Amino acid sequence: MRIMGGRAGAILLVFAQILGIQGSPYLLDPNCASARSDAGLYRVINGSNADLLSNPWMVIVIERGIMKCGGSLINPRYVLTAAHCRSKSDRQLTVRLGEYDVNQRLDCTDYGCIPKPKEVNVTRTFVHGQYTDFRRNDIALLRLERSVQYGEHIRPICMIMGDWNWSWRVLKTIPSFNTTGWGRTGFNTNSHVLQQTTLTHYQLGYCSQYFNRHLDHTHICAASSTSSTCSGDSGGPLTARMLFGRVRRVFLFGVVSYGSGHCLGPTVFTNALPYAGWIERVTRTLY
Length: 287
Hints:
- It is built from 3 helices and 21 strands.
- It has helices at 164-172, 204-211, 276-285; strands at residues 2-3, 12-14, 26-27, 58-63, 66-75, 78-81, 93-97, 108-109, 112-113, 118-127, 140-144, 160-161, 176-181, 184-186, 189-190, 195-202, 219-223, 227-228, 237-244, 247-259, 267-271.
- A hairpin with a 2-residue loop joins strand 8 (108-109) and strand 9 (112-113).
- The two termini are 32 Å apart.
C-alpha cells in the first residue's frame, strides 16, 4: 500500500432502527470484531502503520511460501479475497492469520505482545461463477483446512446479510472507508508492517472515466490524494465502522480489485454487498 502522508482513520456511522423491521439485516458471524476504543494506544505517531490489534480479520494469502494477496477472515472456516488471487492448485495456498509485522517472530508494543501468527492450509477455493477476469465479479472464498479459534488478535470482520436494498442505501451514505494491506510501498518492496489508510468514497463515474471502463453496482470507487493501494494489496478489505444495535463494529463493504499500475489514483473495489447471498450459501452449506 503506497501512502504519501496523512493519518489513516475510519468513519463512524449509525444503523438506525434496525430491530423490528421486516427483512432486517443481520451478521454473517455474530462474533465478529467490535471496533476498539483504545486503538490509539497502538498507533505510530504521525505514521501510517496500522494499530496492532485493530485489524484481527486481516490475513495474508500465501502461495508456495510467497505473499500473494490480502484477505479477510469472515467466519471460523472462510476467508474472503479477490478471485484473481486464486491459485492453479488449492494445495499451493495457505493463509496466515494474526500477523502484523512479517519480519518479527513476535509482535509487541509497550502494552504487551500478541500470540504468534497461525498458518492454515486452504482446501478449496470458491470463485464466483460469473468471474472471468479482475474487471467483473472479482471475488472468491477460501475454505480453510480447519476452523480457527478466535482471540484478541484473530477475529472475523463483520458482514451484512439480509436486505440488499437496505444495505445499498447504507452504502451510499458512507463518505469514506479504511483499507489495509502489506502491499508495495515503493521501490518494488512490500511493507513488513500492516499499513492502513483512509479513502474517500467517489461516484462510480470517477473510476469509470479514470480507467476508461464500465463499472456498475458490483463495484465501489474510492481514492485519496495522499495514498493508494498497490501490488500485493489485492483481496484486502474496504471497511467502515458502524453501530449495529448498541455495539460499534467494523464492517466489510469491498474487496481490493485493481488500481493504476503506478499505484497513484483511485482503486476499484468489488462491492461485497451484491454477493452476500452467494457468500452465505457457500459458507453455510459447505462449512
